[in-house]
Amino acid sequence: MAGGITESGEPYSPFVGLVYMFNLIVGTGALTMPKAFASAGWVVSIALITFLGCMSYMTTTFVIEAMAAANAQLRWKRREQEEALFNIRPPPLYITLTVDNVFVFFTERSGGHVDHFDIVERVEMGQMASMFFNKVGLNMFYICIIVYLYGDLAIYAAAVPISLMEVACGNHSCSAGSVKYNDTDPCWGSVTRKDAYRVFLSIFTVMLGPFTFFTAQKTKYLQILTSLMRWIAFTMMIVLALIRIGKGTGEGHPPAASLAGVPNLFGVCVYSFMCQHSLPSLVTPISNKKHVGKLVLLDYVLILGFYVLLSFTAIFCFKSSLLHDMYTLNFTDNCHVLNIPFLRYFLGLFPVFTISTNFPIIAVTLRNNWKTLFYRDGGTYPWVVDRVVFPLITLVPPIVVAFCTHNLESLVGITGAYAGTGIQYIIPASLVFYARRHLEPVVGRDAVNKHRSPFRHSFWVWFVWLWAAFCLMFVTANIILTDTKK
Questions:
Q1: Residues spanned by the domain of 268
Q2: Residue 402 pLDDT greater than 60, yes or no
Q3: What does the alpha-carbon distance between residue 197 and residue 215 come to, in Å, rounded to a whole number?
Q4: Which domain CATH number covers 210?
Q5: Which of 136, 150, 178, 332 is deepest in the core (most CB within 10 A)?
Q6: Domain count for the chain
Q7: What pLDDT is recorded for position 371?
Q8: Whether the predicted pLDDT of 96 surpasses 70
Q9: In 149-192, which ranges are E strands?
Q10: What stretch or stretches form a coiled coil here (predicted)?
Q11: Would 3 be classed as within a structural domain?
């Protein structure tokens, strides 16, 4: 997950929205995808990533439809409040007036028509959940978001020290690309690589952990800088791998299919297509939303093409057994691919800069979700709970996980497979299902949501729910069977 959304919500063009969405989706997951791609085989990987991309696009359209429905409900409630305030007779809410085959609402008081499904007001997913879910559903929503954010923080907390360890401890000779290091190998004298990783993790915690106790604001320019660095790094990696393959010196001979790698690839793919929870901040400021559905489809096609290009060049450029969890590290210890020291260190340290700027933002978001989950109307938290307890329960668990393991592929796979399944499949399908139920008594069956999903039949909602249930059972069974074999 990456940044790139304006903080003030000022309007921007659909093209800018296209770029923002691309930046939002393509993030840390892209760096872990090549290894997962290689482990499952290129034929299976292409089929799975394409299917999961289509599923993610479907649920993205569900969220956009739910956003429009939420805007309509808010307008309707506001209208009811105005009528109660002025004690006026309620005017008709709608008539069968259509513009471009879209039903619009008409009020006598205004003397004109207003499309209540316009996405003008930003309604975050938490607010939509409070509007359309019952208390149990709302709590489950926040728990799912919190688990996902914990996974995000654990991934970030592990990725930065891994990159620092590899740069500090790695052998940067031109033959190092054929060496696979172990955690017990020495780094500095008697200090092992695992010890060095924990040292860097401790430094990371001390430097970035305190931000959890404050509020992350004014990050727009940091996001712009990290987005620029990200695209320089991705472009370099693709071009360098293509050059090596073009020269006929590529070492990769990936299998066509390997079912053993499918569970991890599934989790990585789900994580890599994650954007549903950020759609309200992304879509609402777009100035002209007439073609927002086509814009989202184009974005998914571009992102799918990018993932395939990045992964294909990786698995044919490097041996599958030598691919790092963090793909950038394959360029830091192999002079046959990149023999300019400055650029090798740039790629090696690239995750450090980009992930470090996102960590405080995600931590503050998680802390605020904890507060919302336990919030009671009219209540306030004691100072110690508000300023100490909530930040600590936000920061400590992911750091402990990162101290215990730095297997990024597993962290991304588990986060994507469990919390990612909830956020990307279950929540969007549930939102659109209950949004349709809530709106029908208010606006009638004749009123058409112009932002409704192309997958408007209820079959698709049930299909997503069943697919999510299958995914959870499949991943859980695989983990149990794998542990049993060990």
A1: 14-485
A2: yes
A3: 28
A4: 1.20.1740
A5: 332
A6: 1
A7: 83
A8: no
A9: 186-188, 191-192
A10: none
A11: no
